[in-house]
Design a protein that fits this description.
Chain B: It holds the Pfam family DUF5981. The complex is a heterotrimer of chains A (about 650), B (about 210) and C (about 290). Chain A is α/β, with parallel strands linked by helices and about 650 residues long. Helices cover about 30% and strands about 20% of the residues of chain A. Chain A folds into five domains: about 110 residues, Rossmann fold; about 60 residues, no CATH class; about 160 residues, Roll (Ubiquitin-like (UB roll)), CATH 3.10.20.600; about 160 residues, 3-Layer(aba) Sandwich (Rossmann fold), CATH 3.40.50.11540; about 60 residues, no CATH class. The two termini of chain A are about 45 Å apart. In chain A, about 50% of the residues are buried. Chain B is an alpha/beta fold and about 210 residues long. Chain B folds into two domains: about 110 residues, Rossmann fold (3-Layer(aba) Sandwich), CATH 3.40.50.2300; about 60 residues, no CATH class. Chain B has eight helices and six strands. In chain B, the strands form two sheets. In chain B, strands 3-2-4-5 form a four-stranded parallel β-sheet, sandwiched between helices. Chain B is elongated. The relative contact order of chain B is 0.13. With about 290 residues, chain C is of the alpha/beta class. In chain C, α4 crosses α5. Chain C has an eight-stranded parallel β-barrel with strand order 1-2-3-4-5-6-7-8, surrounded by five helices. Chain C is about 40% helix and about 15% strand. Chain C is globular, with a radius of gyration of 18 Å. In chain C, α4 links the parallel β3 and β4. The chains are: A alpha/beta (about 650), B alpha/beta (about 210), C alpha/beta (about 290). Chains A and B meet through α4, β5, β6, α8 and α17 of A and β1, α3, α5, β5 and β6 of B.
Amino acid sequence: MENYTKYKLKSNDELVSLLAGKDNLFIVACNKCFKEFESVDEPECGELEKLAAEQGKTITGSAKVDFLCNKIQTEKKLKDLLPEGTENVLVAACGLGIQTVADLAGMPVFAASNSLNYRGYHGMALTKKGCDACAQCYLNVTGGICPIVDCSKSLVNGQCGGAKNGKCEVDGNKDCAWEKIYRRLEKQGRLEEFLNQPVQMRDYSKVNFKAVNDYVKSVRETRLDGYYGGVHPSERKEYTEHIALERFPDPEVVVIPLSMHAGAPANPVVQVGDTVKVGQKIGEAAAFISSPIHSSVSGTVIAIENHGHATRGECLSVVIKSDGKNTLDESVKPHKDLDSLTPDEIVEIVREAGIVGMGGAGFPTAVKLKPAKPVDTILLNGCECEPLLTADHRVLLEFADDVIFGLKAILKAVGAEKGVIVIEDNKPDAIALLEEKTAECSNIEVVVAKTKYPQGAEKMLIKRVTGRKVPSGGLPADVGCVVSNISTTKAIADAIKTGMPLVERVVTVTGERLKKPGNYIVKIGTNTKDLIDYCGGTIGDDITIKAGGPMMGFVLSDTNVPIMKGSNGIIAVDTDHTVEQPCIKCGRCADVCPMELSPLYYAKYADEENWQGMKDKNVMDCIECRCCEYICSSKIPLVSKIKTGKGVVRGMK
Amino acid sequence: MLITQLKAKETIVSLVDGKKAFIINCQGCKEVHFPEKEAAELEKELAANGQVTGVITTDYICNPDNMKLRLQKHMDEIEAADVVLVLSCGIGVQTVAEYLEEKKVCAACDTFPLPGFQGVTPLEYKCDQCGECYLNLTGGICPITACSKSLVNGQCGGSKNGKCEVDGEMECGWERIYRRLAQLGRLDALKCPTQIRNFATDEEVSK
Amino acid sequence: MKITEAFERGEFVVTAEVGPPKGFHIEHMLEEAKTYLSGVTAVNVTDNQSSVMRLGSLATCKALKDEGLTPIFQLTCRDRNRIALQSDLLSAAMFGIENLLLLTGDHTKLGDHPQAKPVFDLDSVSLIHTVKQLESGVDLGGNELVGEPPKFAKGAVVSPCSDSVDVQLAKMERKVAAGCDYFQTQAVYEPEKFIQFMEKAKQFGKPVQLGIVIPKSVGMCRYMNANVAGIHIPEEMIDELKADKEKTKAGITGVEIAARIIRECKPYCQGVHIMALGWESKVPELLKQAGI
């Protein structure tokens, strides 16, 4: 079979007469969708160029584009593409692509192709014509065989007189749908049910295009709200969002990894047998991008050894047996009040307290507070866009004053004019509270953002709130912003007010497979398994446990790993029983990628080990938010393929 | 791409008919409408009556291989049910019905067409895949989808104040086409021969 | 008789319109038509007007013809595909019905069966083309007809007072190109607009009949202004109807207005088409006042 989907070039005769009297052509061809993703370029562009040249036409240029119907991306691609002197644009695409170009080109645009009639094919794309979307599903009276699609006449009350040997009168190769329906109902003992049903009459007014159009418009608006792409996975925050914080009982032993941050692991400054106190430094920052580590209990160091780690496999860790007394280290004492502290002093306190980004990435906060470029806006990320997690939400509710104090400290440290606390609209209680508490602060504002994942990603948050776009490969400071996580900000407040370094954090333990979900204040180094056991354990077997949320979390094959500075959640969810299938080029990944990339190419290139191709498609811009993998209809593990590619590309430099 | 809407509650209740049901929710194409709240409510009600043997919420059940992998874990619950209630588009229901051939598999939703499943979706553009693109005659505005009657030879007499006779909020497609052609200096396109539609274009695809 | 013959003779052609009832008893309708419309050149029979199901146009045409009147068979694309349309055209020819008015038809959603499947397999332009094709002895599928092909006077409609008259003129041009012989217009209440329209329409060289609907009441005018495409009744005209309620109720004011419009437009067009909408009895008086 010819390799085409969606559209086919018009006949040569028609194209020749179409070109008559038109010259200076620019040719655009859409790389087809909903097909096996084998070739990158479809042949139509070349065929058209050849035909136009034969007709003695001047071709000013040509372009092959993926998903021409994606207006936003097409607009970017078409910009400056049409050369001077172009008078007509010839498009080979389905009707959607042609209309998109016709709207954008500002000059006559002509269709060189006919859209193929694929009505009825949807779902997993071009597998089988199955549903005509008639808006009045008849499958219940037909044993699950569609009479609208499978019967040539779309009869809804039974077989016509045209069937011969069980075949359709229109197509002798096609089984009579009503014969199939009858046999299936017979098999299920449902013939009487069929015979007794009332006369079926189709209602053609049911397809309400107005409602459909309104829906499409609203979905489009949501998709593009604030920034391009993103998804809205089912939130499932109701398990824990109303549960107040509870202090997790002190563990007998803590295992504190020396690497819980981006950059170099800390160097241990204690030895086996040493006695340590709460807040005592046990590991020292090993480089500029690194962080010190502190003890979360008082007791004795019983081992410094490799231990299981949620994200790194194994990591050198300090194992401390608690004496149960929680004796404070002498170094833990309040600093001067905020007004008396200089910006440098604040940064130093943050550095010494071992504070790192607690949203997961673990970038040392002190480094962030010394931006290389002038910063005018500090954004507090209160979005917590990951489904299931409610740790930041609870911190906002129960430690609002600390969060605001921390923000003030950051503002002072960085010398920024404005602080913005961004909260998603699914947390109205937190919004109301923070609005009330910041009413008097002229330089602090609460911004409510419509819930959309990955809103909490720095670049998305900045785009949403300020409209500024962080350049490819750039940092927030490049556009005058610093973004800080809620728990991190609260940790800064603690470090200044009490002198306590980062030794504990709030963790949401939840998921549909966890008996007793909750939000806990947990000491760093607490064993994850103990935490799960404390929550009543899990329900049933075949469960997946993740550190973090369902989108960006890490699968824990072994729960014998410690809670770390970046552990915002532990979740127990159903295992996903799917396997990777070939890409059908449905384009959904390109539609949801907030970085406006084309993830489908990463899957293809990773399999081909075409690392240069990955680099050319800007794989390094990927923020690994997993939107593409979430939406992928073929269940391709895109993020792991991307991570592999990034690793190789990084080495290429 | 589609929109699924829950059938009337009475209809669904009568499908279960006081017996036991296994429920499959397909939140398939994700951004495409799935009546999440209504479905949850209904399922809660049925469960309260002890009528539910199991519920799974999944995606892309139209993909037969992955659908099977997911259902296999629940075969006991499916066995115990008299009816399998599928909340999905028509494709999903049929995929399940074919797999569970001996079982009464019912559709709890109606499926509405959503234009533009060709690629990125949903879209602001519409294409009815008529198989004989008219965009060259219309300045790039599709008369099949932009006109309520899918007229291909010009405006009917029903437009009032530039709006369609069927929907007063919808712009008359042919008025839009005329303006676009005028703007492009291409009104001569209207002097083309009389257009007659060919409704047999799906043959090519079914081959 | 073909209505085109009357145009060719240079007559100012008057036609009127009847709507078949919802039911098959048409004695009353026939009686009214004979009494009041015998003076007109031909009588249009609507085809399930406004998408409201009624007695068929073709059968009613035959009944009118049997009573000695000249019917114009209105045919819309709403309810029939190209097979049924061509078949009905041949049936009309067999009955000796020679005049056609070919329309797209209102959408099904506007009528009393909104659940119905709207057909629109053809539209008004392609329907004219189809008739032309049949007249050449070949059907739309390219198959030859048996015996002498039918011959019709092919009419179509246009809205001169439409808010988008340029778009209407473009469609009119396509209808002419497809083979339309004459036009009847949507009801006109603004003679100036009609005259301007005719200035542009005369290039097509096809006879145009001015459309007239007698304004019955203020309420009817308001309704048409709000809901009926291509119609706008000026406020002064509505004020005229308001002035003397009794006179309006008796139909005197409406007939006066309609007659005035005809008188003003007559020099610019080739006939008048009266849609009496139940006021068939007023037609003779209207024609008298209009000086026809």
